[in-house]
Amino acid sequence: MCGTNLYWRAMSSTVPGPAGPAVPDHPAGYVLRKLPHVTLLFWILKIIAVTLGETAGDLFGITLQVGYVATALIFLVFFLVVLVAQVRAKRFHAPLFWAVVLGTSLVGTEISDLSNRGVGHGSAQNGIGYAWGAVILTGILVIVFLAWWRTGQTYDVETIASRKGEILYWIAILVSNTLGTSSGDWLSDDTGLGFRNAFFVIAGIMVAIVAAHYLTNINGTLLFWLAFILTRPLGAAGGDSLTKPTDEGGLGWGTLWGSVALAGLLIALIIYQIVQIRRHPLAPLPYPINRLTGQPQRPNGAVIASATGSAGRGDAGRANAPGGQVSEPAERDN
């Protein structure tokens, strides 16, 4: 099943298919989705994006000797541009969404390398080290999740419909990818495992997380973020396997051709996702309500009046499809 259908649900807590079930009408209206469902395709794209972030970071920072600071600034500008565009968008746009994920990986890689190794363009450590970097970033991520909880936003990444919730989502992703970089470097370098053995260790943990999702009652949101963090070092180990010389256990593609190959694969799968969404438009979400106060919040996407119609989609399905007509989101600041 998962070999032929990339929309097989690898880790999901809500909707059983690409478009989801028909949502009953709500008096406050509905919001077009800005974030994709968590499917097998989601995880494949995420791993490719963060692997590209690793190889592109090494291409700029080490191969081209641009230096961590300059490289970090270049990637930061790219990240901020696509992030602003994503936040301002009215519906889900696959190229834009994955550009932001790539941006978090690029920036996260440079933040991790800059703090752990220090300023420069080599691999010598003049910073705080991988272990302390992972510890500090873990603390930052815990603070982000605590702030997320106190704002009254949902933790369910498939039902985020508020502007504040989406911003917290992207902050958590940036910190998670940065933490994944530091923890992966610590596992492969400081423990002496090397990138190949580290890959197998992380892959084993990922298999255990998937098993826990299906066989236990462990909170799905917790498992999602654990898997999200671990895909970063998994991708880094995979990137090293592509770019490292053959005498070091890699394929010897180098950072340039490794990045080109990954970018091509990422683009191809994004096109596939676009085609699938045209065929199966994403179902809208109920108007966002603050979990603590019960007050309506500012939506992160376009507002539509009805979630259902003919064939179970109607206005919602047409609006979610690329090129559909939508109304402007209501301006609420709660």
Secondary-structure blueprint:
Blueprint: E1 30-31, H1 40-63, H2 68-88, H3 94-117, H4 130-150, H5 163-190, H6 194-215, H7 220-243, H8 254-279, E2 285-286, E3 303-304, H9 314-320
Antiparallel strand pairs: 1-2, 1-3
Helix pairs in contact: 1-3, 1-7, 1-8, 2-3, 3-4, 3-5, 4-5, 5-6, 5-7, 6-7
Structural commentary:
By secondary structure, the protein is an all-alpha fold. It has one domain. Helix content is 59%, strand content 2%. The chain contains nine helices and three strands, in the order βααααααααββα. Strands 2-1-3 form a three-stranded antiparallel beta sheet, with helices on one face. Helix 1 packs across helix 7 and helix 3 crosses helix 5. The chain is globular and about 60 Å long. The N and C termini lie far apart (43 Å). The N terminus and C terminus are likely disordered.
